[in-house]
Fold this protein.
Amino acid sequence: MPIKIPHNLPASEILAREGVQLIKDTDAMRQDIRPLRIALLNLMPLKIKTETQIARVLAGTPLQIEMTLIAPTNYVPRNTSREHMLDFYHPFSDIQSQKFDGLIITGAPIEKLPFKKVDYWDELGRIFDWTVQNVHSVFTLCWGAQAALQHFYDIPKYLLPEKRFGIYSHRVLDNTSTLMHGLIDTFPVPVSRHTETRRADIEGISNLEILVESEDAGLCLVRDNRLNHIHMFNHLEYDSTTLDAEYRRDLESGEPVTIPKNYYRDNNPDFEPINTWRSTAHLMFHNWLNEIYQTTPYDINLIGSTYRHELVKS
């Protein structure tokens, strides 16, 4: 089933060229099904790239997906035009009366800042609280995952001695989880972080379950079984060339950066990167969408009420 994204979103043309099926409002209305309403709170500076990456991994399931773009109410991004934000994004204040089957919260290049120094930290806290009654399942990425764990559990992040950067092998710790269905026992994942969340802080909280981790890169995927949150500390959604672009950007700006590990052939930046994580990204996000479909109420207004199916365990 194709994905329904805002009309004329730049991602539309990119995804169409890739063969990703898109659906128009008029076609969606003819199908006698309720689409899954998935919101994207996009905190990344290059918003069009991130929109495209997320739309790509959400597309291709048998489900009809309706994607809504959200931004903090009063925050003005420096790297995206005002016209793009006005045309395609809803400030949180305008959608907080709505319900969503799923919400994806991206990372942001502000890891080194203390949480409370982030311009939109107070509003992000209100968004986290809002999700409890208005969103069936939340999927957070990188800094977004750290922020959620800080908000709900006061779990800190720790500054790394150097940027953890490259493609790292990760292992599945619980093959019975619905999110892991069809995944191989070990798989590569793009990592790009200056900070980390530590296993010791997760292990002390019974609601939190570690699903995927790496001996070299640390935690990757944590599930909150109480709040129905999925926390991904890395970037399966990344394009083939995203780490390459980050590497060359940091080189040009004079930032201390090493060649991303296990990324270029022969560790040579002159070679074009090969994507080794694409199938894992699609399968994991599709597992998440399927789990939402199996457990969310058909009447979306019941989200947050006493009604809730038990999560599928196998």
The CA atoms of residues 170 and 187 lie 5 Å apart. The two ends are 24 Å apart (CA to CA). The chain has one domain: 3-238+279-302.
